[in-house]
């Protein structure tokens, strides 16, 4: 059983290393920048899920060089503002562009 866990861990690490290598080859940003952006996106999404006043499934988050872009549909102006406030408080976020539309 521990051999399977070891192989699974090795496969996971290999996948991460390969994806990090692909990020470097794109030429748009460094591997560290790509990883930071991924962790920012993941953290923002997780915090949206934690907030009971936000429909996290209706909000998309993308990050590039610490700049977060929010898109999707909010139920109210308050929810739209809440989503933006959650994103701006995440460590590493430089700016937030809030493209979330309010449902009529």
How would you sum up this structure, described in words?
This protein has 104 residues and is an alpha+beta fold. The protein has a single domain (29-102), classed as Histidine-containing Protein, Chain: A, CATH 3.30.1340. 54% of the residues lie in helices and 21% in strands. It contains three helices and three strands. Strands 1-2-3 form a three-stranded mixed sheet. Strand 1 and strand 2 (67-74) form a beta hairpin. Helix 1 (2-25) packs across helix 2. The relative contact order is 0.14. Residues 21-26 have low confidence and may be disordered.
CATH class: Alpha Beta
Largest sheet: 3 strands, mixed
- Principal-axis shape: elongated
Our count of domains comes out at 1
Specify the CATH architecture. Answer: 2-Layer Sandwich
Strand-pairing-aware structural class: alpha+beta
Give the topology string: H per helix, E per strand. Answer: HHEEHE
Annotated CATH topology:
Histidine-containing Protein, Chain: A
Counted by DSSP, the helix tally is 3
Mean pLDDT: 82
Radius of gyration of CA atoms, rounded to a whole number: 17 Å
Number of strands: 3
Poorly predicted runs of 5 or more residues: 21-26
Query: Into which percentage range does the β-strand content fall?
Result: 15-25%
Arrangement of strands in the largest sheet = 1-2-3
Helix fraction bin: 40-55%
Distance between the termini: 55 Å
Notable features of this structure?
single chain; 104 residues; alpha+beta; Histidine-containing Protein, Chain: A
Secondary structure layout:
Layout lengths: L1 H24 L5 H20 L8 E6 L2 E8 L2 H12 L6 E8 L2
Parallel strand pairs: 2-3
Antiparallel strand pairs: 1-2
Helix pairs in contact: 1-2
